[in-house]
Amino acid sequence: MLAAITVLLSLLGAYFLPYLFFITPVPLIILVYRHGMRPGILVAVTSALLGGMVLSTLPTMVFLLILGLVGLAMGGALREGWSPGKIMFIGSATSIAALVLMIIVTSFLLDYNVLESTIELMERSLKQSMNIYDRLGVETNPLLNEDVLGEFMRMLRLAFPAAILTTAVIMTFANYWLAHLILRRLGVKLPWLRQFRLWRFPWYLAWGYILGQGLPLLARGAPDGNVWFTVGLNLQIIFNYVFLLQGLAILWYFMDKANVAKMLRWLIIFFMFNPLFMTLIVWAGVLDTWFDFRKLGQEEPV
Description:
Elements: H1 2-15, H2 25-35, H3 37-55, H4 58-79, H5 84-110, H6 114-136, H7 146-158, H8 160-185, H9 206-218, H10 225-257, H11 262-271, H12 275-291
């Protein structure tokens, strides 16, 4: 039954919603947690073979096998009783490996460069939007021109590692959340992440943010400046997301303390999603690692 559900998710992902491909590990997580690794491996292989036969494509079979690794790893971590932080870590690491393997398989089996194709599609979409605005006589930002667009695309290529990492974390969280929700409905009590308002990352991650801001500046004029710029850019993107989450957790904590209605909280957060306020929220998240604005003490971080 779980193999059939996995194949069904892959079919829906192939024909309707591509993102459903990334939650195919959920049935395996549940199976491994309840019955162990051996049945999980058997179902992973069976579902991959079934998916390959139904869709008549070798890449689908390979993709399901690769995604099966995520389900096996996270199910095994849950079965061992690991903490939510460790489960997120092992799931994210396995998801990164799975995404990289999928890109390699796509390149070799289909001779299809996922990265270049995605960037080219985005570039075409942006150019088409600019052309439509021109034809309609709508004024666009004068700074948005071909040169700026080309530089933006170059940055996207350089930021590919950060994109892989953030995708892997989101994929892991989605799989963990769904598996946790289903198992809870089945009467199984599992550990879950702390309340969002109490999220606080380890203090040493602030150095990742500082390096992300500093390396691109140090790269100017350096012999191997492009390498340092690329490293700094990726660190900047990753840790901006990390401390944006922590900053939002701080904001949510104080709104909760002030008994602000939930609808109003979401409206406040929605209106804060502009470059200035987002930068301030990120800085608040970074400073919180040292100043502990919420007085959470030395509790185990998220």
